[in-house]
Design brief:
six-stranded parallel beta sheet; alpha/beta; 45% helix; 429 residues; globular
Length: 429
């Protein structure tokens, strides 16, 4: 890996390079995605089946597009019992964590005859998109579905691509059934997002769409946003490790590559105060890449978006960590809990040598759907909050309104909104 001494200029260059990975730079595909979305909006199932045959080589109809109970039972037969046990344990951890995020309606009344409050209501219907093929991630099924279930969403509709024979990855089906998905449709890509957003003769329209996907899925979500809600327009995966001289270089190298294997555009960065550690980590990375299965992907990712940045001090290191605002941040320092207090921007923070990023991906409980491309400066991980809506509650009795009505009228008239003022005034004529 390239080792760079951290300066203001080198930091600026790196940030510029990382931003090239943003979905805002996917413009070359926008016209294609908009055409697909509009076709689904206009022609419904006919267009959906056409695109499924074109892209997934599967001929489907209104009967076969929905995953049947028999197909789910068949999937269970193909999943090892020990793996099923692990999935169930992970579900327990994820549910337990997200149950602590639940919000409840509240009301605050005063003796003068006012009552103010907030009504919390779960979304009625949510669509979960799950990638297929080489990017099949049953763990993402759990992370997207379970917070929705905890929030109280009544209907969860899942779409996921099938193969040419019309089959869906067995682990995906098992994870969906265990998590509590109501119905699963064999649909992928931008066409699936459009179907969820607008509805077709077969797939119902939802209120919100969540879940990861490729460039076409990301752009389709951005296209339909406003007609439905979405979680985010996520970019490629990223990891940043903040380490001092106490870190184990082999552990750090392994963790950097755990994200580099996702995608040629994935980013893996080490920020350290130790040049010795920097050199050792670089050597370990070069040793790991040839012996791991996704060698070509990791090589491209590391060469294009991989960095080892050597800072003069921990303060300087923390500053660049906050500027990058990584999706995943590992802190491997002598006192990681103290270092954590200085971090302002990160999607998920992993503390210490034995809290590697995949722990969060699969098992610990916190959500692995995280802000990317620097958006951790203002976005948060997927949570129960994403599957609820809040309504304000306002009640004033006549006795409560009377002493303040002239103030409200004056405020409205100052904005030249006389009908607003009149709405209050008529009650005290």
């Amino acid at each position: 890996m390239r080792i760079i001494t951290l300066t203001e200029d080198s930091k600026k260059d790196i940030l510029t390079n990382l931003l090239k990975r943003s979905p805002d730079n996917y413009g070359v595909y926008e016209a294609t995605v908009k055409e697909i979305v509009e076709d689904i909006h206009t022609n419904g199932d006919a267009a959906l089946f056409r695109y499924t045959e074109k892209f997934d080589k599967a001929k489907l109809n209104q009967d076969s597009i929905r995953v049947s109970k028999d197909e789910i039972e068949e999937a269970y037969a193909q999943v090892d019992a020990s793996l099923l046990s692990i999935i169930r344990e992970a579900i327990t951890n994820i549910r337990t964590y997200h149950e602590k995020q639940k919000q409840y309606s509240w009301f605050d009344s005063e003796q003068n005859g006012t009552m103010l409050g907030q009504k919390v209501t779960p979304l009625a219907k949510v669509g979960v998109y799950v990638p297929g093929g080489k990017a099949a991630y049953p763990s993402s099924v759990l992370m997207n579905v379970i917070p929705a279930k905890v929030a109280g969403v009544k209907e969860i509709v899942m779409t996921t691509p099938c193969d040419a024979s019309g089959k869906v990855y067995p682990m995906t089906l098992v994870a969906a059934n265990e998590a509590g998905v109501n119905v699963i449709y064999k649909a992928g890509g931008a066409q699936a997002i459009a179907a969820l957003a607008y509805g077709t003769e077969t797939i119902p329209k939802v209120d919100k769409i969540v879940g990861p996907g490729n460039i076409f899925v990301a752009l389709a979500k951005r296209t339909v946003f406003g007609h439905v809600s979405i979680d985010s327009v996520a970019g490629p995966s990223e990891i940043l490790v903040l380490a001092d001289e106490t870190a184990n270089p082999r552990f750090v190298a392994a963790d950097l590559l755990s994200q580099a294997e996702h995608d040629e555009m994935a980013s893996a960065i080490l920020v350290t105060t130790s040049m010795e550690l920097a050199k050792k980590v670089s050597d370990e990375v070069e040793g790991f890449i040839p012996v791991l299965s996704r060698t070509d992907i990791m090589r491209k990712s590391i060469d294009t978006y991989g960095y080892i940045l050597v800072a003069k001090s921990m303060e300087e290191a923390v500053d660049v960590v906050n500027d990058i605002a990584s999706e995943h941040l590992e802190i491997v320092t002598a006192n990681p809990f103290d270092t954590m207090t200085k971090i302002q921007n990160a999607g998920a923070i992993f503390l210490g040598s034995y809290s590697s990023e995949p722990l969060g991906d699969y098992f610990a409980g916190p959500n692995h759907v995280l802000p990317t491309n620097g958006t951790a400066k203002f976005f948060s991980p997927l949570s129960v909050d994403d599957f609820i809506k809040k309504s304000s509650i306002i009640y004033y009795s006549k006795e409560a309104l009377e002493p303040v009505h002239e103030k409200i009228e004056a405020f409205a008239e100052s904005e030249h909104l006389t009908a607003h003022a009149n709405s209050i005034h008529v009650r005290f004529e």
